[in-house]
Amino acid sequence: QVQLVDSGGGVVQPGRSLRLSCAASGFTFSDYTMHWVRQAPGKGLEWVTLISNDGTRKYYADSVQGRFTISRDNSKNTLYLQMNTLRAEDTAVYYCARQGGEVAGPCDYWGQGTLVTVSS
Amino acid sequence: DIQMTQSPSSPSASVGDRVTITCRANLNIANYLNWYQQKPGKAPKLLIFAASTLQTGVPSRFSGVGSGTDFTLTISSLQPEDFATYYCQQSLSAPFTFGPGTKVDIK
Asked: From the CA of B15, how many Å to the nearest CA of chain A?
C-alpha cells in the first residue's frame, strides 16, 4: 500500500537550516509529482512547493521562494525539503503528499507530518 | 495567485443534519477543485477531486458540485466521524492554494 513517511523535523534557531525527508513506498515514486504542505499551530493548510516526477519542474510559494529547495532522489524513493534562513513563521507541521496521476490532480496520499519549530 | 474563500467558517450541526460548505475562487478554475477532511493531529484526507469525483473509499454521503468560481461540498446526513475541518484547494496552477478551512462542530 502507498506509504509516505516524513522525518527530519525538530527545534532550530532562527536563521539556521534544516532538511526534511519523505520516504515513499508502495508505488512507483518516479511516476509522480510530489508536494510539501505545511500547517502552523492552530492554523490552516498552506501549500509550500512541488516537484515534477523527473525533478525538472519546481514551484514555490512566495513565502518560501529563495529560502527553501525541493528535490528528490528517485533511486532512493525519497523527497527532500531543504529549508534555509528559517524564520519563526516557518514553525509548522510539514507534510509531504503525492499528487494523483492526473495532470493538475489532487494530493491523494499524505505523510504523517513532521514538526519544525523555529525558536531561539 | 488564485485566492480561495470558504463559508461558513464554523457551522454547528447535529448528527443526521445536512451540511453544506461553500468554496469560492477569485478566478475561473474550471473544475480543478479538491476537498479534504482533516481531524485533529492527523494528516488531511482527500474526499473529492475535480470538483465532483468521490475519492475511492469515501462514503457516498459526501458530494461535490461546481465549476468556474463557485463550489459546494455537501454531507447529506452528518455522522459522528464527520466532525472535522474541511478544506478546499485549487489545483489549476501554482501556488495550489487552500481555502481557510471550515470546522464542523457538534451543536
From this structure: 25
Over residues B38-92, the pLDDT tens digits come to: 999 999 999 999 999 999 999 999 999 999 999 999 999 999 999 999 999 999 9
3-state secondary structure of B91: coil
**For residue B5, how many other CB atoms are within 10 A of its CB?**
13
Number of Cβ atoms within 10 Å of the Cβ of A88: 10
For A81, B3, B40, B48, B91, the CA distances from B78, given in Å and listed in that order, are: 38, 28, 18, 17, 27
CB atoms B46 and A50 under 8 Å: no
Instruction: Tell me how far apart the alpha carbons of residues A111 and A95 are, in angstroms, rounded to a whole number.
Output: 6
Chain segment A21-50, per-residue pLDDT in tens? 999 999 999 999 999 999 999 999 999 999
**Cell numbers of A71, please?**
528535490
Distances in Å between the alpha carbon of B91 and those of A29, A59, A102, B79, B105?
20, 13, 11, 28, 27
**B71 Cβ under 8 Å from any chain A Cβ:** no
- Three cell numbers, residue A62: 512566495
Q: How far does chain A reach from its first CA to its final CA, in angstroms?
A: 40
| pLDDT score of B12 | 83
On chain A, the residues whose CB falls within 8 A of the CB of B99 are: 44
Tell me the sheet residues that pair with A5: A23
